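Example 345, ligand aspartic acid.
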Amino acid sequence: MTKKPNILIIYTGGTIGMIKDYQTNALKAFDFSQIIQNIPEIEQLKCILTSVSFEEPIDSSNMNTFYYINIAEIIEANYKKFDGFVVLTGSDTMAFVSSTLSFMLENLAKPIIFTGSQLPIGDLRTDAKENLITSIEIACSQKNNKPIISEVCLYFEYKLYRANRTTKINADQFEAFTSMNYPPLAESGVHLNFNHYFISETTHNDDELIVRKNLVENIAILKLFPGITKSVVDAILNIENLQGIVLETYGSGNAPNETWFLESLKKAISKNIKIVNVTQCEGGRVVQGHYETSVGLKAIGVISGKDITTESAIAKLMYLLSENLSNTEFTFYFEKSLRGEISDS
Ligand code: ASP
């Protein structure tokens, strides 16, 4: 008889485990033991489940690098004991959190599945049960005694995505996430179908996991809009100790080619601030030099984010800025796929 997979559920908070506060009528995080009580079906799964919870579960709007490290350390401490991990977090910042974990966990050989829900698990019409049960099933799925998934993923509303490709797109509908530039890794219907071609192959073993816990927080997002003024741009670029910027540009990476704008960026780059060009569009990629309005960006050394999401660009900046890289190395690694977050072509 083959051994039942051992799965660790890590509960950090989020709607999935929330209840209504009868005084304020607002949803607030609650005790994890409530969650399992609400899903007796979980007993039927062919795996051994263990759970751990943040001492004080949080709404994911309160997520920060302290909690990222907390999640990474729980995984690190339990890595050898478990075959897979399901991380429950709020959906609001799940794309950021799971993207960052994908960079923090290097040489991963086991599934890390992030999920949550739009309605609390105790709610009659909840989406929590399907999300949680299928996430556990995915974390348990093996082929030739090896996990099918060995990367950081996000499962929501019948689709499994590579985490660092996701964006939250809807606050109301159950289909809260999308991955515009990379296809789902699995789809759940009558059957759970894995899209093997798009799944990263495991080339590591359990001993090789490296957990990167140094994250740089001195970064910002500068989102362009027609009419943006020099004082706004300069106020952001002159933030004390700033080390990196995600410059959210138009279309395929275009920005005003006015002299003051390019001069401000150039000055920031000369102070060793890394500027990464990411499109405001949900899908498609940055191609610097395709239009005249991005030629200047390329010339002054703005890094191309290609088809990376803003969430993933923030995560990658936090990670790479801590690595003591030369300018050339930084650009090389940022523009290259490290965890499948960028399409290299
Ligand atoms: N505000 C909640 C959170 O992100 C929303 C959710 O869980 O979906 O924690």
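Summary: The mean pLDDT is 94.
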